[in-house]
Predict the structure of Helix-turn-helix transcriptional regulator.
Amino acid sequence: MPNERLRATLLEQGLTIATLAESIGVDQKTVERWITKDRTPYRRHRYAVASRLGVDETFLWPDALTNEQVTAASSSELVTIYPRRTMVPRDAWGRLFATAKEDIGVLVYSGLFLSEDSGIQRTFAEKAKAGVRVRILLGDPDSPQVAERGADEGVGDAQAAKIRNALVLYKNLRKQDGVEFRYHNTVLYNSIYRADDQLLVNTHVYGITAALAPVWHLRRIAGGDLVNTYLDSFERVWEAATPIPGD
C-alpha cells in the first residue's frame, strides 16, 4: 500500500518529491519508494522528513516506533510538574506565550487569573498582530457543564460569574484581529494553555479549585505522543464550540 499520508502532506505544502529528497540529502528514488511502496526510512531520515514537513513522525509512519520507544519519548515530553497552579511562577505564563510563533490556545472554564493579567493580554494582542493565531475557549456560563463544575468545586454560581467577569476583562482583546473567542459546553478534565509545541496542563480534581490542582509543563518531541493527546483534545473542543454572542 502506498503511503498516502506522506504523498498528501507533500501536495498540501506544494512540495515535490525532488524538493524533499534534496532538502534531506537522499536520492529522489528513495523518496519515491517511501511513497509508492510504503517503505519505512531509517530513523534519522524519518526525523528529517517530519521536521521538514512540520508533522509528527508517527503521523507519517504510525508503525515505525515500538510501544517502548513511544513511551520513552512521551516521558521525555514532561518538563516539570507543579503540585498546584499557584506554584507556577507568574512569569512562566508570560514566557510560555512569548515563545509562540504560530499558535496560542487557551481552553478553560473561566481562567480568570489569566484575564486579570494585563501583561498576558498585551502578549496575546502583540502575537495576534504578528500573525500568531490566538484562540480562547471559555465555558458557556449558561451550560449545565459549568453549573456542574461550580458544584464540584463548591463555588456554585460563582463559576459562571467568573466567566462573565473574564469576558468583561477581555473586552478590548475581543476586538483585536487575529484573536478568536468561543464558548464550549464540554466537561473539562484539564485546562490547556498552549504555545505552539509547549503546554501547561492544569488538571481538574473533584472537590478543589483548579488553582490548587497540579500543572504539567509539557514540550513536544519527535516520537512522543503525550502532547499530541492534549492538542487533539483542544482541537475537538474548538470544532464543537460556538461564537460568543456579540463577537
About this structure: The chain has a mean pLDDT of 91. The first strand starts at residue 78 and ends at 82.
